[in-house]
């Protein structure tokens, strides 16, 4: 079935009906969008006194008016162990305690997107895709929001052109050479595992733990090689969009990354994506002078006005993505929006405050109750929201990060 696209022609329908009378339901998908530097708390959050479906969108969320019935704004959440605002995105999807390992000042756990990838990414060419903004102030390129099952960071891609080629450009290397390269990588793995096993005896507990972690890393590489081998002879999907221009920044970069997200989902190249959106280049593209960091430390005046403009731009861009998801049709007539869960937000509310994480949920993929303003009890674990999403996506997860249970008000 991988080689046979679900064509809408009469010939395919006749073949499909002869082969099976049961329709194939569109796959569930999931997208996480991080804004990193928080929001303007005075103008982004809706009035907490008005909840449910009758709430009024705030100034910062006003560009989402046309989608109000399809979004849910959640207030009251935070990550229990967050204590460093400059590491906001690091723990946004994990809810981990960085001091959980004795003797280490940095420890993390698996991020929500990678939990989804382990469950929904088995049948796609890419288990997940990690995207970064081209200007991650203070962090440099390569960092994403994704963390693997060992709590190790997963690299992301910050160039839309490279993302396009990864998704849709055919591999230039002949099949035989690609097979040989995989075989060579596998032989190297065998050699290093053999050497590592020789030093297993007589190690301290700490060294044994390190070696176990090393072996898990080897197993992860083996799994990736197996997947690459399985897809060697299967051509990549034809791109539903043109190759992006070089050097796009700010708003233009976010728009093309959104287009690539939709294209990746539409072609079933992956079912899980995360995007750590740019801060500095976004402000520059809006002709705003303060830096992304300084805008997050706003006070009345230029910085606060810049923060408010940034917030509305984020909302406009989110509305644009929802438009595209709704306009992209599945073979059964439903829309991509109907089968995609989207989470938008930040681990930081504003300045250095790590409480009341700004959170917007949309899309039908996780069977969440949309069209409402939800104010939860103060310091409700943000991971309760992620756990609710995971279960709504059909994933059998009992907990995630510092979760204490699902958010029943979110369950449709």
| Count of helix runs | 11
Query: What is the name of the CATH superfamily of the largest domain?
Result: Alkaline Phosphatase, subunit A
DSSP helix fraction: 25-40%
The low-pLDDT segments are 1-20, 135-141
Give the distance, in angstroms, between the N- and C-terminal Cα atoms.
32 Å
As a percent range, the share of strand residues is 5-15%
Order of helices and strands: HEHEHEHHHHEHHHEEEH
| Largest sheet features | 7 strands, mixed
Structural class: alpha/beta
| Mean pLDDT level | 86
Assembly type: single chain
CATH architecture of the largest domain: 3-Layer(aba) Sandwich
Count of all domains: 2
Fold and architecture overview:
With 412 residues, the protein is an alpha/beta fold. The chain has 2 domains: 24-169 and 238-410, Alkaline Phosphatase, subunit A (3-Layer(aba) Sandwich); 171-234. Helices cover 36% and strands 10% of the residues. It has helices spanning 10-19, 41-44, 112-120, 160-168, 175-198, 205-230, 250-266, 280-285, 292-296, 302-327, 382-392; strands at 29-34, 71-78, 129-132, 272-276, 340-345, 359-362, 372-381. It has a 7-stranded mixed beta sheet, with helices on both faces. Helix 7 runs parallel beside helix 10 (302-327). The chain is globular.
């Amino acid at each position: 079935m991988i080689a046979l696209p679900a064509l809408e022609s009469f010939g395919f329908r006749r073949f499909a009906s002869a082969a099976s009378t049961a329709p194939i339901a569109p796959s569930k998908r999931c997208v996480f969008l991080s804004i990193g530097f928080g929001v303007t708390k005075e103008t982004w959050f809706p009035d907490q006194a008005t909840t449910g479906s009758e709430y009024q969108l705030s100034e910062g969320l006003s560009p989402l008016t046309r989608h109000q019935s399809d979004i849910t704004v959640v207030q009251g959440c935070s990550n229990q162990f967050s204590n460093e605002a400059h590491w906001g995105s690091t723990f946004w999807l994990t809810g981990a305690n960085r001091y959980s390992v004795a003797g280490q000042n940095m420890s993390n756990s698996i991020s929500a997107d990678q939990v989804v990838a382990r469950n929904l990414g088995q049948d796609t060419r890419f288990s997940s895709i990690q995207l970064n903004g081209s200007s991650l102030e203070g962090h440099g390129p390569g960092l994403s929001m994704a963390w693997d099952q060992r709590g190790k960071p997963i690299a992301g891609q910050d160039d839309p052109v490279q993302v396009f080629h990864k998704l849709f450009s055919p591999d230039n290397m002949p099949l035989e050479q690609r097979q040989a390269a995989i075989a060579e990588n596998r032989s190297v793995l065998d050699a290093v595992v053999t050497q590592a096993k020789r030093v297993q005896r007589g190690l301290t507990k700490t060294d044994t733990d390190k070696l176990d972690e090393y072996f898990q890393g080897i197993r992860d590489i083996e799994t990736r090689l197996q997947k690459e081998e399985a897809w060697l002879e299967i051509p990549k999907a034809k791109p539903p969009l043109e190759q992006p221009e070089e050097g796009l920044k700010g708003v233009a970069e976010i728009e093309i990354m959104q287009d690539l997200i939709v294209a990746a989902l539409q072609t079933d190249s992956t079912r899980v994506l995360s995007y750590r959106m740019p801060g500095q280049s976004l402000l520059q593209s809006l002709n705003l002078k303060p830096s992304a960091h300084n805008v997050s430390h706003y006070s009345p005046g230029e910085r606060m006005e810049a923060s408010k403009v940034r917030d509305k731009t984020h909302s406009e861009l989110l509305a644009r993505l929802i438009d595209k998801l709704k306009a992209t049709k599945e073979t059964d007539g439903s829309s991509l929006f109907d089968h995609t869960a989207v989470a938008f937000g930040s681990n930081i509310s504003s300045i250095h405050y790590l409480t009341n994480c700004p959170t917007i949920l949309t899309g039908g993929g996780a069977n969440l109750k949309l069209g409402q303003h939800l104010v939860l009890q103060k310091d409700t674990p943000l991971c309760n929201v992620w756990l609710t999403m995971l279960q709504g996506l059909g994933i059998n997860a009992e907990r995630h990060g510092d979760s204490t249970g699902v958010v029943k008000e979110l369950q449709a």
